[in-house]
Amino acid sequence: ILLLIRNPKDVATSFYHFSNGMPPLPSYETWDDFFVAFMTKKMPWGCYFEYLSKWNKYADDENVMTITYEELKENPVLGVKNIAAFLGISLTEKELQSVVERSSFQSMKKNSQKTHGAFGNILFRKGGISDWKSLFSEDQNEKMDKAFEEHIGGTKLGTKLKYEVYCKA
């Protein structure tokens, strides 16, 4: 099992834009309204912190590889090499480069109309890291940090996210 996790602040930011662009989902007039819903567990797919907490139980399982979105953005070649090794797949240098290029956000966004039709632009918006800084107030940032610490701060997944997000930023 490949478990891809992401900075909860960027998860919230992406889901805010996704929700507002996807008609079947609830939309929010303001970021503040969305933030309250996100923090009070009123998301259609539940609470991201609870999701991470549940997966943390399996973080040491030899059949589970955890990787962060941030790791893949920072060094996609190393990320693909590690994933391939975990899955027992050997790649030539040419295959490795092909996978890296074809799985890049830019490539997936470019092909999104073919692969995902009308939802392509909704699913593939920016693909960046730290976009949360454009929406979060100082108070919201502090609330998210507190919730992070309370739910997953000392766990293996929490430590991995904290390192990738806060120590490398």
Automatic annotation (TrEMBL):
<dbReference type="InterPro" id="IPR027417">
    <property type="entry name" value="P-loop_NTPase"/>
</dbReference>
<comment type="similarity">
    <text>Belongs to the sulfotransferase 1 family.</text>
</comment>
<keyword id="KW-0808">Transferase</keyword>
<dbReference type="Pfam" id="PF00685">
    <property type="entry name" value="Sulfotransfer_1"/>
</dbReference>
<dbReference type="GO" id="GO:0008146">
    <property type="term" value="F:sulfotransferase activity"/>
</dbReference>
<protein>
    <recommendedName>
        <fullName>Sulfotransferase</fullName>
        <ecNumber>2.8.2.-</ecNumber>
    </recommendedName>
</protein>
<feature type="domain" description="Sulfotransferase">
    <location>
        <begin position="1"/>
        <end position="155"/>
    </location>
</feature>
<dbReference type="InterPro" id="IPR000863">
    <property type="entry name" value="Sulfotransferase_dom"/>
</dbReference>
